Amino acid sequence: MAAPRSTSTRRFSPQLEGFCKTASALADAHAAEAILVLAERPLDWASVQECLGKHTMLVAADTEDQLAGSDDEEGSEANFETLLLGMGDAPVYERLTQALLEAVSEDLLETGSTVVTLYSSFEPSVIDSVSLIRLGEHLGKLTVRDLRQIQTKVPTETLKRVIDLAVEIGREGREGKPVGTLMVVGDHRKTLELSKPMGFDPVRGYSAAERSLSDTKVREGVKEIAQMDGAFIVSANGTVIASAQHLSAPASREISLSKGLGARHWAAAQVSRATEAIAIAVSASSGTVRVFQNGEVVLRIEPLNRAMTWRDFEAEADRDRGAASPKPTKSAKSKAKTTKAKAAEALPPDQSDSAQDAGG
Ligand SMILES: Nc1ncnc2c1ncn2[C@@H]1O[C@H](COP(=O)(O)OP(=O)(O)OP(=O)(O)O)[C@@H](O)[C@H]1O
Asked: Is the domain covering 14-139+317-338 a CATH 3.40.1380.20 domain?
């Protein structure tokens, strides 16, 4: 049984109280759906909750320690919905964005919600800022990570085009039905060696110009073909080389994926591990787009209800990739479940021979 967590060291300072009251008033004035606290250390959650009042409350933090006592687990003094970010030194703007994306993907917030956020922007670990964020406007302009940080031989223009197409497929589906797909971009010769047609390939026999993703008609055709089983193979210059392909890259013990991701996502992870290609998986069930490189998710884009635009990240272009890279995220609650099922999760559905091997 978990011991009750002590709050004795967590002061509810007059400053924190002032910000909580301000956040609550702001949420009332703008009919905000929720108040999100981005915490850098555990707070006196009971007092924070009391002060924030009746609003839906979320707390996001980088580590489980920082979230301690905030959720509805035994021994907690509050019942915030918690979001574990694991983003280390990422700037507050990125962490807030990730927290909001996570909240949307966990169905804690709607994509069009208005949210009041409390966070620390000037003095580390001290809540000193409050913002009113309209998610529709904010998240529509963002991706979780800067595309340019994906270091690949595939030109950014091609990647952007394929990812935009994937996002459209995930968001729009086809004729009211959700559609998932898989696109593998770059290193197409090696990718072809690891694939075989699943049946009829609709792009076969067309000239390269007729298969170029720079052409709107080709992109529309890809959306049609995406309803079929299998993967697209796209060259670095944005030409569709093949479609409806079954990928069978070798399993790697380095790969582990979140629970709930099935054969399509395992195929994406494995082909990106076995080749220099970038694999882009669109989940039919959620519309989420995941970009895989070297067996890992390096970018995740949630299906927002409006067109995504790409920001210019000049200021961050030279930043060290590792330091700037948010780790894969998960809410604290789903993480607990994930840990229990770890061995099972680490295996692709069709490779259940050795949990230890695959879990790495
Ligand atoms: N190795 C593969 N190569 C190409 N396509 C594949 C492969 N494995 C699965 N797929 C495609 O993915 C589809 C969905 O499979 P599955 O439901 O197991 O994947 P998933 O990762 O759970 O994705 P989703 O979230 O879209 O359901 C399959 O019908 C098939 O079209």
From this structure: yes
